[in-house]
Amino acid sequence: MTSPEHPAAPRNVIELHDISKEFTGGTVAVDRVTLAVEPGTVFGVVGHSGAGKSTLLRLINLLETPTSGTVTVAGQDLIALGARELRAARRNIGMVFQQFNLFRSRTVLGNVAYPLRQAGASRARSRERAEEALRFVGLADQARRYPEQLSGGQRQRVGIARALATEPRVLLCDEATSALDPQTTQEVLALLRRVNDELGVTIVLITHEMEVVRAVCDRMAVMDGGRVVETGPVREVFAAPQHPTTRAFVRSAVQASPLLDLLPAALRKHGVDEAVAASVLAEVGA
Ligand code: ADP
Question: Quick check: 283 pLDDT over 70?
Fold first, then answer.
């Protein structure tokens, strides 16, 4: 039943309801997770290695089939779809990988055009759209080159252009900056922010680095042992982490902060008593 007050369009672009994934052999990688992502959000999932982040991400586009629970993307219950409909629905969901996953034998343009050709677009249309996506990521002049002629950061931008080629509503990023140095990481994160701001694409990214979450995410979830143990706006989670795993992540991010490196000198400069300074530094983990 719909009414003007209750439009049919769902509020969330992604809804995972009570979703679990048990692999053959008994590992429960994702354990009864319920999660909703509103349109236009950059949503970060943080957790240690083995927490279940990658499996959770792959459940969103059904690269992994859940053992139980439902997955709804852009209002479609993906599990209920047949193979053909699922392929169409997946064009709404781009994916970016840690190791880029580009075809070595294809040019940059060929890589970006590939999903369009797969979706049945004409050669001319695929090329036009791929060139547009490459312009967006700032690599129009690299179209004729091959992936191995590019730097890691450029390869990841090609990976992002390819993921955007089919004009998805959702972009899933699997540790997209983990293979990159800090400077290149910042550039790729800035590009993801533009993808969100200028194209309105909802982004879910998984990472083991709290700094990445702090740099680009609006909301976040923390995973531990296959469960989501905490979720909320990034600022609130950083200000008042509740779960011990979240606290440890926040502490690690604070310790990695360049501001903290300046703290000992600042305390000295302002003549803070040495014992007090030592206690302050211990308190904040510097
Ligand atoms: P994360 O991305 O947080 O590192 P993963 O989702 O990759 O975590 O893995 C969660 C758990 O599921 C780990 O114990 C991992 O060994 C297990 N796992 C992941 N993929 C498979 C698979 N294809 N078969 C069996 N176990 C798997």
Answer: no
**CB-based burial label for 203 (10 Å; 0-12, 13-18, 19+):** buried
Whether pTM > 0.90 for this model: the answer is no
What are the φ and ψ backbone dihedral angles of 16, each rounded to 5 degrees?
-105, 125
Q: Residue 233: helix, strand or coil by DSSP?
A: strand
How many A from CA of 55 to the centre of ligand 1?
Answer: 6
Ligand 1 centre from 206 Cα, in Å?
Answer: 14
Substitution candidate for ligand 1 out of 55, 99, 227, 229 with most atoms within 8 A of CB: 55
Q: How far is CA 262 from CA 18, 257, 281, in A?
A: 45, 10, 11
| Residue in this structure with the two tokens 């972009």, named with its chain if needed | 171
104-152 pLDDT tens trace: 999 999 999 999 999 999 999 999 999 999 999 999 999 999 999 999 9
